[in-house]
Hints:
Two copies of one chain form a homodimer.
Chain A: E1 2-3, E2 6-8, H1 10-17, E3 23-26, H2 35-44, E4 50-52, E5 70-74, E6 88-91, E7 93-94, E8 113-118, H3 120-123, H4 126-135, E9 139-142, H5 161-164, E10 172-176, H6 181-190, E11 194-198, E12 203-205, H7 207-227, E13 232-237, H8 246-258, E14 262-267, E15 282-285, H9 290-294, E16 302-304, H10 306-312
Parallel strand pairs in A: 3-4, 3-5, 5-6, 8-9, 8-10, 10-11, 13-14, 13-15, 15-16
Antiparallel strand pairs in A: 1-2, 2-7, 11-12
Amino acid sequence: MKLKYYEVDEKELLQEAKKGKRIAIKLPNGLSCYACKILSFLKNNGIDAIFLAESCYGACDFIFYDDIDRIICIGEAEMPYLCYKPPVSFIEAKYDFDVKFIEEALPFIEGRKVGIASITPFIHKIEECKKFIEEKGYKAFIGDKSRRTAYNGQILGCDISSATSIANNVDSFLFIGDGFFHPLALYIAVRKPVIVANPIEKKIYSKEIEEMAEKMIKKRYAHIAKATECEKFGIIVTKKIGQRRLQLANRLKKMLERHQKEAFLIFMNDINEAINYFDFDCYVSTACPRVAIDDADRYEKLILTPIEIEILLGERKWENYEFDQIL
Amino acid sequence: MKLKYYEVDEKELLQEAKKGKRIAIKLPNGLSCYACKILSFLKNNGIDAIFLAESCYGACDFIFYDDIDRIICIGEAEMPYLCYKPPVSFIEAKYDFDVKFIEEALPFIEGRKVGIASITPFIHKIEECKKFIEEKGYKAFIGDKSRRTAYNGQILGCDISSATSIANNVDSFLFIGDGFFHPLALYIAVRKPVIVANPIEKKIYSKEIEEMAEKMIKKRYAHIAKATECEKFGIIVTKKIGQRRLQLANRLKKMLERHQKEAFLIFMNDINEAINYFDFDCYVSTACPRVAIDDADRYEKLILTPIEIEILLGERKWENYEFDQIL
């Protein structure tokens, strides 16, 4: 079944859907416009499924659901260490492409040793990319997967450990994927050239990543500087099973209180514009690390990451700025 | 403690908060701007509470929460038939006012027999209002509470049975409260004059209710008419404990299918703009009845109530239009 640019294996979908009696499908934003199409397909194959229309920003973004005995999540790869209730079948959506287009990335690669990283709709091609690059005379490395990732070389917005684990062995990184959040996180972590090869656009980005990263770090510093005047901190904790960091939240609360700030935990599953109206001056998100970074402009109030709070309070040096990760 | 125009009993708040070891406060939108103020007050009294920042459109709007052993909900009255987990202490916010202002409503009352209805921040004054009206020579009636309401005479957006139960005995209704949703629902149900006495504005509305109701019904008819072209229906089911109507949803699904429509259940807790992007033509909300009526303009796609679906499919006559209630 073709969904947008992505291919979903119909046989696998039916096979997984037959494992439950009360099945629900869950879809990331980009695929939710095919909900009825997928339900119709299942129905035509004798399976009456439900659409579980909750937020779906990754395999981390699950709570516990009743009245369903299996979830079919289309378009995400499993987070192997999580215990899903009910069980979840992850059916990946794959983007097929000819790896030859990455030839255009080669002139931008510094050194001969290249680390390769990718994300789910493209990761099935990572070995082919490695082979292609090695045929061009480079030595290519793919880092091992972590407990949160399903494939070697796969990185997440909140877990780039597959790439950082090989950073010392390589001169540059090649990121195969779309969007800039992952390569930015990677660049900030490794401070080595990161070249992006976007298989959908068939475009290469190199110096742009460094420029964007520097701009973003400046913006984050500005947010931290603004927060020095804040007195009332709300520490946001989600119950999404792959984003819940209650212990960290309690540690931050104590740290803020030690520095004479008022600090309270806020249990909130999906962070949204409501935070503009609460009487807190500043928030810390212990949920998805992207919220503070990517969505900052959506909010009138400041949202910092846990690492930024440490910098704010002088418990970490400015030069040790890091992207927040859930490892 | 004064919150906006409302008075909250501090002693009651502390007494309830001391009943748990891990307490969270939950607040309706209008009071969420006092979250930190309330948490500070509790903290100064030795109670370190959490802010449970989930949607709070009534005592119906609860799911089950972990890691908390009691919720203090400020500003709503209990729904007695629900089983909350963890237990919830409802601390009402009361609006104090001099009942004499309703004298201005008297010239608009038709007949001598008046039914009185009200909502939570004002309901504590209902007996005083009754007495005042009776002193003016009227015979006043207050309907019994239902399983969903905490007080005689109290109505909800989804349960006006306290008022409808006395409709045959009265000539007019007097509604003590703010907003127009409740009196509109009441007018549509009873088709007798409904006079609104708003204690905050100290204003009286009479003919306006009838006009607004007629306008609203016309708008609903237009929505039903538009939906005749729709083929793909999404039936929204929430897991909020006081709004969950799974059986009704299954009945609507079968009814739609009998009429050759495609129909699927959608599990969605908080209905939001995401529905604009799903590939359904029309939605039915089995959750809070206000969603389809009050929020219609927020959505590009149609949302009907279960009763409107019956009309659409010819299973109910147009002239039997009713407000959706959860009874």
